[in-house]
Amino acid sequence: MNRLFGAKSTAPKPTLNSAISNVDTRIESIDVKLAKLNAELTTYQQRLGKMRNGPGKTAIKQKALKVLQQRKMYEAQRDQLQAQSWNMEQAGMMQDNLKNTMITVDAMKTTTKELKKQYGKVNIDKIEKLQDEMADLMDVGNDIQDAISRSYDVPEEVDEDELDAELEALGEEVELEGIGESSGVPAFLMDDAAPPQFIDEPPEPSKVKEAAG
């Protein structure tokens, strides 16, 4: 049977990327041949421009025409291969997009299943009850804050004469403190440092030393 139908091939099937690579390699080979033909055509054109009409010029012209036909053939083949490569690249992009779409769909399915499991465990009634309890606690807290921050009754009418008298007394105290600080004696020692009121003149320092001796 193998002789009639041939043995089953075990070689790996070509992939799209390998096919594109093979076509690109063929295009590069054709480009090399076209560069060689263009160089020959340039040489023939230069020789034809310097030659006079005659059998020699006619022979060079025939060679140039043959090279030009070959170049056109290779250019057509290159265009065909470039079209094939482009079509395969488009197919590859479509394949990649399809793979990405399938991955996205699978991820969305998995996420939907997980969300259903998680939300299925949630009790809406318990959440609403918890919200009501939190609202009640917030009301209690506000009541406590209002009670703590309540201001006591303060007489609205204040006697301006009493305020003026109190302000004048404060001014006298400030003046006394200023005198004490200027003399170098603290205000709370002013009464102790001053001489007694029953003495007309303060004692002389020499007499104070003699009495002490």
UniProtKB/TrEMBL annotation:
Keywords: Coiled coil. The keyword Coiled coil applies. Residues 177-213 are annotated as: Disordered. Pfam families: Snf7. This is Charged multivesicular body protein-like protein 5. Residues 204-213 have a biased composition (Basic and acidic residues). GO terms for cellular component: multivesicular body.
